[in-house]
Amino acid sequence: MAYKTFTKEDYTAILDLINDNDRVLYQDAIQEEYGHDELGGTESLPDVVVLAASTADVSKVMTYAYENNIPVTARGAGTGLVGACVPIEHGILIDISKMDQILELDEDNLTLTVQPGVLLMTIGDYTAEHDLFFPPDPGEKSATIAGNIATNAGGMRAVKYGVTRDFVRELEVVLPTGKVVTFGGKVVKNSSGLDLKDLIIGSEGILGIITKAVLKLLPAPKKVISLLVPFPTLRQAIDTVPEIVRSENVPIAIEFMEQDVILDAEEYLGKKFPDHSADAYLLLRFDGNTDEEVEKAYQPVADLCLKQGAVDVFISDTQEREDSIWKARSAFLEAIKGSTTDMDELDTVVPRSKVNEMVAYFPEVSKEQGIRIKSFGHAGDGNLHAYMLKDDLSEAEFQKRMTKTMELVYEKAHNLGGLVSGEHGIGYAKKRYLKETMDPVNLELMRGIKKTFDPKNILNPNKVFDV
Amino acid sequence: MDETTKENFLKALTKVIPPDRLYTEDEISDDYGHDEINTIFHLPEFAVKPMTTKEVATVMQCANENNISVVVRGAGTGLVGGAIPTTGGLLLDLSGMNEIKQLDTDNLTLTVEPGALLTDIKQYTETRGFFYPPDPGEKTATIGGNISTNAGGMRAIKYGVTRDYVRGLTVVTALGNVMHLGGKFVKNSSGFDLKDMIIGSEGTLGVITEITLKIIIKPEVTMSLLVPFPNFKDAIKAVPNILRSGITPTAVEFFEQNVIKYWESFSQKIFPEDGHQAYLLLSFDGQKEAQIEDDYEKIAELCLEHGAEDVYVLDDVKQQEEIWSARGAFLEAIKDSTTEMDEVDIVVPRSEIVSFVQYVHQIATTENIRIPGFGHAGDGNLHFYVCRDDYDQKTWQEKLTKVFDALYQESKTLGGQVSGEHGIGIAKKVYLRKSLDEVTYTAMKKIKQVFDPNNILNPDKIL
Ligand SMILES: Cc1cc2nc3c(=O)[nH]c(=O)nc-3n(C[C@H](O)[C@H](O)[C@H](O)COP(=O)(O)OP(=O)(O)OC[C@H]3O[C@@H](n4cnc5c(N)ncnc54)[C@H](O)[C@@H]3O)c2cc1C
Ligand SMILES: Cc1cc2nc3c(=O)[nH]c(=O)nc-3n(C[C@H](O)[C@H](O)[C@H](O)COP(=O)(O)OP(=O)(O)OC[C@H]3O[C@@H](n4cnc5c(N)ncnc54)[C@H](O)[C@@H]3O)c2cc1C
Q1: What is the mean pLDDT of residues B163-185?
Q2: Domain boundary residue, one of B58, B93, B128
Q3: What is the pLDDT of residues A187-208, one digit of tens each?
Q4: Which residue numbers delimit the FAD-binding PCMH-type domain (chain B) (predicted)?
Q5: Which residues of chain B from 99 to 128 reach within 8 Å of chain A, CB to CB?
Q6: Does one domain contain both B20 and B81?
Q7: Do residues A188 and A197 touch, judged by C-beta distance below 8 A?
Q8: What global pTM score does this model have?
């Protein structure tokens, strides 16, 4: 698709709309960061960056872009892992990170209304002050809420509470035409027509730009306790997961990890993990309102793990221990990244019952393709993260082996009834694999929907699928 | 439909569906012409009872080629005319596809055909120690119908609605293609969320032919509290305090004295502890009796602090069943109290329930018409029934329109939506239209076109 070439006149016109020199960046003023996201595999700079301060800003710029056929990409904090916020076709980048106000806490409806650029950690702190709780808990706390919504981020509490999608009540969205709409509401149930809100969630900024969100909150659980459970083998650890999920009190999180990743994290953080002697671990977390309640919940699960062959069960009964374990868990990605020269990741999701088959496949394909793979993941919801590491490979060789590995892994996931992405999205990096594993009928419908929202294909073009 | 099209289509159908499952003309049962609301009646020209996804797909291809409208029917218990073939054409009766196919205890899923009844799913899971939480009042509805209306029901506060328990769907599109949406996995960030587009789309986007449901472990213990209040305001105002407490009841239902009176004369029974102005009915569930006792004691105290006149603990099963079956029969009881009625299924933010109920009372007075109601107070979803009583047809229609207009307008002002759980169908179409802004309405219309370019699937509904 041919877009209008961005000119000085366009810059002046946009500057006129925004009327603030500091919020419209052009040419040399555009920082290098705007050309990539956290994983850096995808790179392309915008022609202009608009630091939006209001819905009206976004709408005005979008309208201008629509009328002039200029591509637009929304960017939150740029922590994405699939190149989704990278402006492949250049044009306008709308940075929403300055729209960072918490607008309303509604204690009767238990909702929090926020601007899109509010950071996840800000929401965490703010709700905690009010004894409330926004459950979704992806590892990266400096991501924006809009980025989380746009990728339908999952995270470390999904087993019990669900994912970002489950905590969005209402969205204000600027459509590719520049029009502003509101989908959903403060209501908790809805059977009134087609579910457009859920269509926007997870659409990676290709259907509209989120300018406000009403989030669902819960009363904060007062106690949280974790169990770190070493197992002699990974297989035994994973085999225990369905048993745990079937138990009476579902943990908030069931994470699995192997010794090598823990060692990486220890080195990266310069701090010891409570234990690193076993081959594989499950990390479980329980919450509740009283110590007794939490104890009653984890006791049977601890017994169950021992019965299934766990070597021991470490209980994080102090806040300090609790923090140190989860801090380490959150650093896994960074730690692995630190252990090599370059890497790319897989975020595949399979049915819980197939996790074992999937994780057993990683070392196999690693050996076969000659590429180092490290993995850990949300075992409780079948969402596995595997990292392919470049180490000493040449760039060309790395790309070749990685591509082959990805193909094989996604095919395997597909055969096991799984999908390309559980929580990070498709963006630019995983587009090919989505296409290869998705029914043409589904893809055609997605294209049709994209076209009705964005007839000129100007909003975040080249992402998720080709139109 | 002209005779040649009719003949061609019938010929095509006979190749796919055996004669004992294909009906035309006077073989078509009157039941196919209406649903539970009974105010609209229209028969299809053909009806078939397919038994497989493949049959549905082939039938849809034939219909699309011949440009015949198709309406899917589950059990026909709908309350908004969604399953009525208002444009004639073909009725696709899925009640024969009712097999429970697979219980997967590792992934905690249950795979079923769309015609499986809610009551069968309950029975099947609960006798095996599992639990499918959504609990709409009508247990003889099909799961396909529940999904298509995104049914809510009595456990939504703690567990959510039907949407939250659908992991995977097999859908036949308007063109006759078979799609698989979602699956046994629990997270998904891989492209647009087509599964949630289908849920709640009332048979306008595709035909659901297989479903993978999420199930959970069955809670072993259930207890209820019946809490009388001196007036409806106090009752409803207690609700946000309950929901902030950190203890989440399974249900928080609200009703007033008038409905109890209708129920008493309908059932010829005496409601336990009647004589109060307004009530909250709460239930709690969990695995351990002690835990639940702790929970409900705290909530009981909280209710008393917020103006409750008393708290009745319903701890034996019989008592609980009595009260909940009364609650379940309120709709029937109101229906029985009048000559004809129509309902609103409005949902407002929880904080606006008092305003809305007040408004209903006010309209009932100014229009001099009875509007009894009750509702899921915990989720702001209120059911009110406008009763005709002795009004003549013309006055009734005028009053009904006036009252509906006013109620939907008020709900919109309060940040509410037209339907919380029953859907739009044909009965609520005008109100949906009024409640949505032009851009949103157009977006829905265009999506409908993407799924169904020839507009053959339930063409007259929702939009
Ligand atoms: C160390 C690390 C750990 C992580 N752990 C997890 C994890 O456990 N679970 C998990 O799910 N994810 C995890 N992630 C991914 C993380 O959730 C995403 O990076 C995050 O959601 C993106 O938010 P962002 O603000 O950085 O968005 P960006 O990277 O800026 O953008 C991401 C996408 O959202 C779109 N977007 C941004 N703002 C808007 C808007 N206002 N309207 C419409 N679209 C918009 C962009 O166009 C782009 O498509 C992790 C990431 C890192 C770096
Ligand atoms: C007494 C009573 C109490 C009720 N209480 C509640 C309640 O508490 N909460 C609540 O939410 N609802 C309640 N309802 C409404 C009830 O949930 C719906 O009637 C039910 O979901 C419809 O199911 P059905 O099989 O009868 O569908 P039908 O009435 O046959 O169809 C309903 C709609 O779904 C479509 N449809 C049916 N099957 C499919 C399929 N396989 N694929 C695509 N589309 C399909 C139809 O085209 C139609 O638009 C109540 C109804 C009654 C009569």
Answers
A1: 97
A2: B93
A3: 999 999 999 999 999 999 999 9
A4: 40-218
A5: 104-108
A6: yes
A7: no
A8: 0.96
Is the model's pLDDT at A5 over the cut of 80? yes
**Which residues, including other chains, have CB under 8 Å from residue A112's CB and lie 6 or more apart?**
A102, A104, A105, A106, A123, A126, A127, A132, A134, A214, A215, A217
At which residue do the structure tokens 């919109």 appear? B412
For residue A342, the distance in angstroms to the closest alpha carbon of chain B comes to 24
Residue type, A329: R
B109 and B85 in one domain? no
User: Which pLDDT belongs to residue A1?
Assistant: 59
Q: Is the shortest distance between the CB of A253 and ligand 1 below 6 Å? A: no
Residue B136, ligand 2, Cβ within 6 A: yes
Q: Determine whether the interchain pair A352/B106 forms a contact, defined as Cβ–Cβ distance below 8 Å.
A: yes
Ligand that lies nearest to the alpha carbon of residue B155, given by its number in the listed order: 2
Indicate which CATH number applies to the domain containing B144.
3.30.465.10
- Domains, chain A, in order of start with CATH, read 8-98 (3.30.43.10), 102-219 (3.30.465.10), 223-319 (3.30.70.2190), 340-424 (3.30.70.2740)
Does B152 contact A453 at a Cβ distance shorter than 8 Å? no
User: What ipTM goes with this model?
Assistant: 0.94
Alpha carbon of A421 to ligand 1 centroid (Å): 13
* pLDDT tens column, B112-155: 999 999 999 999 999 999 999 999 989 999 999 999 999 998 99
Number of A/B CB contacts below 8 angstroms equals 255
Residue in chain A closest to B161 (alpha carbons) equals: A189
B411 touches chain A (CB under 8 A): no
Range of the domain at B48: 3-93
- What pLDDT sits at residue A54? 98
Sequential DSSP letters for B26-58: GGS-GGGG--TT-S-----SEEE---SHHHHHH
Question: Do B307 and B364 fall into the same domain?
Answer: no
Residues B401-426 have pLDDT tens digits of 999 999 999 999 999 999 999 999 99
Q: What percent of chain B has pLDDT over 70?
A: 100
